[in-house]
Amino acid sequence: MSSSVLISGTSGFVGKHLSAYFKSTYPKMNLIELNRSSNNQQNSINWDQIKNLELPDVSSFIHLTGLAHDTKKTNSESKYFEINTDLTVLLFKKFLESNASQFIYMSSVKAAADQVNTELFETIDPNPKTAYGKSKLLAEQKIQNLYATFINNHPHSQKKYYILRPCMIHGPGNKGNLNLLVNFVNKGIPYPFAAFENKRSFLSIDNLVFVIGKIIERNIDSGIYNVSDDQAISTNELVQMIGETYNKKIKLLKIPIFFIRALFGGLDILNAKIGSEQLNKMVENYQVNNSKILKALDVKLPVSTKEGLKTTIFSFQNN
User: Fold this and answer.
1) Residue 170 CA to chain centroid, in angstroms?
2) Contact (Cβ atoms closer than 8 angstroms) between residue 139 and residue 107
3) Is pLDDT at 106 greater than 90 in this prediction?
4) Beta-carbon neighbour count of residue 161 at 10 Å?
5) Residues 38-75, buried b or exposed e (16+ Cβ, 10 A)?
6) What percent of the chain has pLDDT over 90?
7) CATH, domain range 4-171+201-229+288-302
């Protein structure tokens, strides 16, 4: 693969891993990095430069830049739409003006639903509740509307768009909720939420970058695609995996669910740093179906759910 690829957000967690993966897997690929600051590095540009920049040799745009969901609610709603929606529209319009044939947008399953009772498919009627999810969904809708207008005026165009909805991404260097759970278990504190029998999907960074690479390789149909590992696991299983990695004996406490809900509801009222939202992230059911993307690409993911999680957990041990 010898094409030029523009990637926004290479300074972030996914961007760093994707850049490293492309450099090792596709050594002939020319990477152009788009970040807040270019740092005057070769093949690096910033958002102020993108408006007037000519990109005649770029074949694919990969848009990773985004404002992540903040459970502490320190970001204003307008900030989510400014970064997650407006910047996406700006870059997508640049894509439509260019000679590039592919646009990959990193959205989120939270653009579809905050809670999942059974299993999340791409066919769900989206109903996000947070500013984060709403801003991601609006970006998706604007991409689809702009694309439809463009294709109507250019019916023979070969341009494609891919909206990826990943679930919880993890891997070495990740500092998210999984890291918090690892720190909790590593202290030897009994896990108090074992009464919650949940199933949730995760996504290894190795599987994510593999999928993105295959999208660039293959000419699949435009559309929305969920991205997750193949199997969902319970938080209880995850806690036990952490204990095994750290060689700690884990005690699972089945405290009545109604008592835990009441306790965390009280923490919400007190505006504590941890509350119902953080609890839900640990114990919610959130199974994501990935069959559409795997069928379209005709591939199997390189890393199993447990292999990926163990790699991540082990990486925290070395920090």
Assistant:
1) 9
2) yes
3) yes
4) 21
5) beeeeebbebeebeeeebeebbbbbbbbbbebebeeee
6) 66
7) 3.40.50.720
Tokens at residue 62, please?
């990969």
**Which H helix or E strand runs over 296?**
helix 291-297
Q: Are the beta carbons of 157 and 222 closer than 8 angstroms?
A: no
pLDDT surpasses 70 at 318: no
The total number of residues shown for the chain amounts to 319
Dist. CA 291–CA 150, nearest whole Å: 29
What tens digit of pLDDT does each residue of 216-263 get?
999 899 999 999 999 999 999 999 999 988 888 889 999 998 888 888
Which pLDDT score, from 0 to 100, does residue 247 have? 86
Output the six-digit token pair for 94: 């640049």
If we measure between CA atoms, which residue out of 55, 221, 104 comes closest to residue 151? 221
CA–CA gap between residue 253 and residue 232 (Å, rounded)? 22
**CA-CA distance, 111 to 137, in Å (whole number)?**
5
- For residues 305 and 203, give the distance between their C-alpha atoms in angstroms, rounded to a whole number: 8
Residue 74 has a pLDDT of 60
pLDDT-derived band at 283 (thresholds 50, 70, 90) equals confident
Number of H helices, E strands in the chain: 12, 9
**CA–CA gap between residue 212 and residue 21 (Å, rounded):** 10
- DSSP 8-class letter at 111: G
CA–CA separation, 205 vs 12, rounded Å?
Answer: 12
d(CA 2, CA 218) in angstroms, rounded, equals: 14
Please list the helix, strand and coil fractions of the chain in percent, rounded to the nearest 5, in that order.
45, 15, 40
Cβ distance 287 to 199 under 8 Å? Answer: yes
- Residue 37 above 80 pLDDT? no
In this structure, what token pair is assigned to residue 223? Answer: 């559309």
Of 150, 163, 155, the closest CA to residue 223 belongs to 163
Cite the beta strand spans of 75-127 per DSSP E. 102-106
The pTM assigned to this predicted structure is 0.92
State the Cα angle at 211 between 278 and 241, rounded to 5°.
45
pLDDT of residue 40 exceeding 60: no
